[in-house]
Amino acid sequence: MDHREVGVLVLVHDGDDDLVPLLGHQQVGAAVAGHGRRLRVVQVGLQLLEPARLGLHPSQGSEHDDLLPPDRTGRGYAARREPGTLPAVPNERWVAGDGVRLHAREWSSPVARGPDLLLLHGLASSSHIWDLVAPILARRGHRVVALDQRGHGRSAKPSSGYRLERFVADSAAAIRALGLSRPILVGHSFGANVALELAHRRPRSVRGLVLLDGGFLGLRERFDWKTARQVLAPPDLRGTPLSEFLEFVRYELGGAIRITPEVEAVVLSLMRVDRHGNIHPRLSRANHLKILRALWEQDTPGLLRRVRVPTLVLAARSRDPVPDSAGFRQEKERAASRVRAIGGHVRFEWIEGIHDVPLQRPRAVSARIARFAGTLVG
Fold it and tell me: How many separate domains does the chain show?
């Protein structure tokens, strides 16, 4: 199997059609032509689907208010800006994690009346994935902090310490250092796995959980580790010209989301550019593999059954399933049934959109988070 990663993407040479990752932070996308080969796009951090296969059509009602029609080129949906909230410049914060220095970004509300929120990004992503959501939540009365997890963004990148308990310790340390008062943890993709683990290990420090398209599917249910590593291991991207990288991302991501300056900033936050104009992923391949191993080892469905804090599982899906990912969608639907069966303090909801719905539908995402937070006041 031939792989080439472009930023947050893994391009997988068209081969075994049954290799459909089942983690919330991975989804097989459309077949595309690239670099002279037929490739499948396996989404790791930013969802890539062709416009015709998205199955997203703006309609009336608050659930779709942040979806605009494609621009005049016919490519992509843009997130609607909420007047007075975007763009917003957060405060840069640095805190001590579990033996590492962590970078965080904070949006403060002039009138803080809702629970504090700690936002955790996904694998190979950064705190910038929340750039369109966080200002809206702050305007709704929340103190909002988005953390760059270890190995990601501007946080420290040690060569070891990538088991989930270390990510949990980092987040717990950040909660203390920033003076967050029993925050609601909002995790996207891999960040949802970290949030779930933290709530299980330290329930008294958490008010509630929002697991956004992650944290409810288990990798071990589908793969042994050898197969998982073979399918999901990222290649070495170092040295890819920035111009080539951006051209590819604009072409592919533009099918799902219009490439605004805010979206481009999210993409660029995942890379370091050297003096020759070549990119280097901020999350190294070696550390990426260590995190994948930790995810494979986590009993995600079991933790979700045992967690005792109020939890909202918010899973993304498009109206029309992508043919290549039919198996993944079916697995998601089976997992949804298992989550609903837990009942009680664990709720399940679908949200229309792609995996990186915080970029595509920030108003819908923030509305769901705020509504859930409102049930936990008092």
Answer: 1
